[in-house]
Amino acid sequence: MTPHPEDDPMTDLTRDELDDLLGAWAVDALDDDDRVAVEAALARHPDLAETARDLREGAALLGRATDTPADGLAAVVAAATSARPPGRDARLTEGPATRVEAYADQVAALSRLLDRVPDDAWDNPVDAYPWSVRDLVAHLIAIEQYSASFLGFEAFEVTAELELDHLAMTAATIERCRSLPVDEVVAEWRRLAERSVERLRSFDDEALDAPMPLHGLPFGRTAAAVARAFELWTHADDVRKAIGEPVDEPPPAVLHCMASASVGSLALAVLGLEDPPGPATAHVVLTGRGGGTWDLVLPGAEASDAEPDVTLIADVVDYCRVVSRRLDIDDLDMTTEGDAALARTLLQASQFVAV
Fold it and tell me: I want to staple 229 with a disulfide (CB 3.0 to 4.6 A). Which of 102, 249, 296, 311 is the partner?
């Protein structure tokens, strides 16, 4: 499949260009495109990868050794460097880096998990819903059928009203599956999900640009794929909790896809709030492997070199769990500089597609 431009912004760097950018990469001073390009180049120059990690670790040590900063913004930077070594790991380029492959990765991860569910655990309750583990898989069968209807497969019969209710639209499928053997329920979900992965991988760039308005939201197919990856990871953790396993994290490249899609949508998502914020700018820093930095210009504001109205720093996994409503905003360990109320508003907007 031809890589989709929005998922693969990398440009080839020469060895000299890479040398020039390593210092800035180590202190997380590059924009997203340059950072991805550096990490791709490091994968092609393994002799520099160790040097790159040493630079990153040295920058982290300097950040921890610095005395208490004199101003608030410096304190934010210090918090970020103490939370993780600056810069995304050079190995982030390994693994699924596109939105379609992020979805494929989470299909495979959930499939492996379902193979581990004990025979006596399928009726265990799932905390987030009035469902059992079996019911949750049945819910995902209906969502896969619904999603497939936008990929050229058979239509999913649903009323316009039910289509806007992510949970209610799957009730009939859940009821049907309660009378089936568990093996059949799992096999049906697996067949549908793997079929969708195969179809998405077959699409060229034009086909990937086609609309896929799940539940009336203005998704294209690649945006919908990463939303589905988010959903599958979240529900996999629901299953893990139900069977007594610890929650898990996706690979860093998948986390970055999910985080980037979420943060990148915030400037529009705020318009869906009952009380949207006024014109403002924000700088979002998500720490940990798979994290990154983003500059947001909210509706009515203009991009400028001035300090943002708010800088928000949080762990990338914790942020993604806030997005999926598995971590309360009040429980998120975050550092802010500037308008703290705006930071909270952005987190509320991040949950607009949570189910």
Answer: 102
